[in-house]
Amino acid sequence: MAAGRYRRFLKLCEEWPVDDTKRGRDLGAYLRQRVAQAFREGENTQIAEPEACEQMYQSLARIHSNYYKHKYPRPRDTSFSGLSLEEYKLILSTGIESTALLPGWFANDSLRGHRELCNKTDMLDGKTCGIAQRKF
């Protein structure tokens, strides 16, 4: 049974794309690393918790197949910022100074002067959840 799980995880790793623009932060690369650690002995690896392993595989397979994207379709491919998918990919890529790329990155510049909105998005660890620092 472990051999079958191992092969299924390997197939998932082969199908999962690696995004070179997110060096050190890519989910596909992380998945490959974790599968290599979990199945150190390959098909001969003994699984301590087969149910948890199966649940993890099913969850990853749903993410990979865009199950929830199809189950809950979005009416529009945009967000509150008005940025396109390509602009988000550019901002989230590793090694690019996003503040220099899109100086007025909100479509209508609607958040200018609303610093209190940014303060409300502070996370518990003190960091903000903003995708790019913006000076108001």
Automatic annotation (TrEMBL):
One GO process term, biological-process aspect: mitochondrial respiratory chain complex III assembly
Source species of the chain: Phyllostomus discolor (pale spear-nosed bat)
Cellular compartments per GO CC: mitochondrial nucleoid
Domain of life: Eukaryota
Subcellular locations according to the entry: Mitochondrion matrix, Mitochondrion nucleoid
Keyword set, alphabetical order: Mitochondrion, Mitochondrion nucleoid, Transit peptide
The protein, known as: Mitochondrial nucleoid factor 1
InterPro entries per UniProt: UQCC2
The keyword Mitochondrion is assigned to this record: yes
